[in-house]
Amino acid sequence: MRKRGRLAIRKLKFTFQQDNDPNHTAKTTQEWLRDKSLNVLERPSHSPDLNPIKHLWKDLKIAVQQCSPSNLTELERICREQWEKLPKYRLDAVIAAKGASTKY
Fold first, then answer.
1. Contacts of 94 (CB under 8 A, 6+ apart)
2. What is the structure's pLDDT at 79?
3. Which Pfam families did the record assign (predicted)?
4. CA 99 to CA 97: how far, in whole Å?
5. Are residues 79 and 59 in the same domain?
């Protein structure tokens, strides 16, 4: 059964995505990926373009601060309302650019 599983994995076509931060890329990992002939999508370390949620959190924080909630219940209500108002086009832009740089 193990043989069958290994054969199935070899036939799959996928791309492994990793952050090239030196803390996350051990030499042994790189060698293993090369030995297995896996497709690797390399990307810059801590790329904000590939983490668009950071931009959305910043936008939410600014919107909530402008509303000045006075208690936890109000904060939760405002967060929900403001989240629904946030523009979703940033996520679409990152997907369309296939992980490459965007204007955001």
1. 49, 50, 52, 102, 104
2. 92
3. DDE_3 (PF13358)
4. 5
5. yes
